[in-house]
Each structure stands twice: as structure tokens, then as C-alpha cells.
Design brief:
Elements lengths: L1 H31 L36 H4 L7 H9 L1 H4 L13 H12 L6
């Protein structure tokens, strides 16, 4: 019985921790990404492309945004790993990208921003 209670408690805590990660990711996005990128209902591209429904999208393919030639020819679709690599070091992931960003070295922050962006499924 103690084992079952422990599993239930860990499951509940895990759910809360996952939400806390996405919530932290939202805060990180607002501090580090929001000046150039938008998400949510009515999000539009500006200095950077809007990031709704990012995962599964071919890099450099969002209609209406003027990507660098390097990004248009990057040859990958966005997933968790590609996004983490790009946010860690944009120039290393896509040499010639026009995104000027120092990068995020903290793996927990990368995970949290990715968790948050996975929740962004809105029509632009």
C-alpha cells in the first residue's frame, strides 16, 4: 500500500513539475525571446518569425517571413533536439542564420522553453 501511495504521489508531483517547467519556459520566453518572436492567438512575425505550431515545421518555411538563405536551406524540421541545438548556438546549428543571439547554455532553461513552445498551437 505504501508503494502505491508513493507512485501516486510521484505521479502527481511529476505533473505539477511538468507544469512548472512550462510556466518557467513562458517566463524565460518573455524575457529572452519575446522581443523578436511572438506566440499565442493572433501571433504575427516581426523581427523574427512567430513560433506557433513550431514543432514539425520545416526550418525556414513559414510563409510571410523573410528568412536568411541559410535557414531556408537548413534541411530539417523543428523538433525538441533541433530547437535546443539552435537555441544553444544558432550559428553552429545553422551557419549563416540572421538570428543574432548569444545562446542559452543552461539545459534546464532549454528544456523549459521547449516545453512552453510545445503548448503553443494557435492560428496566427
Amino acid at each position: 500500500m505504501k508503494t502505491l501511495a508513493g507512485v501516486v504521489l510521484l505521479t502527481l508531483l511529476g505533473g505539477e513539475l511538468a507544469w512548472a517547467d512550462a510556466d518557467n519556459g513562458r517566463n524565460l520566453f518573455l524575457r529572452r525571446c519575446h522581443n523578436c518572436h511572438s506566440v499565442g492567438p493572433g501571433a504575427q512575425s516581426g523581427f523574427g518569425p512567430q513560433l506557433n505550431d513550431l514543432f514539425g515545421r520545416q526550418a525556414g518555411s513559414l510563409a510571410g517571413y523573410n528568412y536568411s538563405e541559410a535557414m531556408r536551406h537548413a534541411g530539417f524540421a523543428w523538433d525538441r533536439e533541433a530547437l535546443a541545438a539552435f537555441l544553444r548556438d544558432p550559428e553552429a546549428k545553422v551557419p549563416g542564420t540572421k538570428m543574432r543571439f548569444w545562446g542559452i547554455g543552461d539545459s534546464d532553461d532549454l528544456r523549459d522553453i521547449t516545453d512552453y513552445l510545445e503548448t503553443q498551437h494557435h492560428a496566427p
